[in-house]
Amino acid sequence: MALLDSIGRTINYLRLSVTDRCNLRCRYCMPEEGIGKVAHGGILSYEELYRIARAAVSIGIDKIRITGGEPLVRKGIIKFLQQLAEIPGLEQLVLTTNGVLLERMAADLRAAGVQRLNISLDSLDPGTFLQISRCGDLARVLAGIEAAKKCGFPIKLNMVVMRGINDHEIMDFATLATTSATTVRFIEYMPAIREHGWQRLVVPGGEILDRLAERFTLIPAEQAEMAGPARNFIIPGASGALGIITPVSHHFCSDCNRIRVTASGLAKGCLFSESQVDLKPSLQSGSSLLLAGALGTIVATKPVCHQMSQEECHHQAFSMASIGG
Ligand code: SAM
Q1: Does residue 133's CB lie within 6 angstroms of at least one atom of ligand 1?
Q2: Strand, helix or coil for residue 34
Q3: Are 261 and 278 in contact (CB under 8 A)?
Q4: In what order do the strands lie in the sheet with 116-120?
Q5: How far is the CA of 192 from the centre of ligand 1 (A)?
Q6: pLDDT at 318 (0 to 100)
Q7: Ligand 1 lined by 73 (C-beta under 6 Å)
Q8: What is the pTM for the complete model shown?
Q9: Are 293 and 35 in contact (CB under 8 A)?
Q10: Which tens digit of pLDDT belongs to each residue from 132-153?
Q11: 3 state DSSP class of 273
Q12: Contact between residue 50 and residue 80 where contact means Cβ atoms under 8 Å apart
């Protein structure tokens, strides 16, 4: 039976963060000084995360995306993914990664039952990549992408577009979709860390499309079920595809199908809402019914629309690394 929220949206997608730790320090994701990491004791065990996943599936979730921080830095992740993949009723197990550790982990991820990967990549230039990630080595990520391809993963790259920082690479990324079977999705920069003057960094999706249209013919693709918030486009003759995700200029709240759980057990119905339910008491009670009920509360109280304003940030600053994007 479909899981519906208070305005009739079907909620079938859980983004489950397994760690707030990351091996990059992307400037759009966390402040320069890093984030106050949750002490190890505050991070849920795999057993607790598994119980959350099972409870979520029991109420109607059929797609789980594992996220972080960087999920591949957490020890034991492969075994955990194997367990998740075996949950009856879970149709899609997918994962998002920055690709740094993919070269040596791609085959294991595939064997564990992960069906698809989203790989975050914001520049094809080593210097710009380093500037954005503050410590990343582009060559390692590219090697990771190659390894993922060899293992049979479809490749989907997510680029956070920032004016004056990497927007000059929009065409280079789009070209990847024409020269290889790669899906490239352009994401509008969101004010996660409440950076002063954040608006100047946002390149609206409409502008991205206009720029792309100067060189490419873009044909809107049919929206696949469970496709997420991207508007996708096909380029005639290209083996890949393009998508744009526009949380700032054109929100997609009416189609939002997701809930989120952080690595410390806070469930949220909306990235930009301060309302959350702490799942730890339900976990400690040992009752899967209570846990399912707590997740159900998040679904029932899911905001109709996010409160992010284009002028000001009304939400508290937060780190995407603790919520998982
Ligand atoms: N480490 C993994 C990764 O890099 O994919 C998972 C966590 S990361 C927080 C998840 C997603 O959030 C990434 O695709 C990232 O690009 C996106 N993200 C983080 N901060 C963002 C921001 N300020 N605006 C737009 N997207 C953001």
Answers
A1: no
A2: coil
A3: no
A4: 219-220, 231-234, 241-245, 182-188, 155-161, 116-120, 92-97, 63-67, 13-17, 258-261, 266-268, 276-278
A5: 10
A6: 60
A7: no
A8: 0.95
A9: no
A10: 999 999 999 999 999 999 999 9
A11: coil
A12: yes
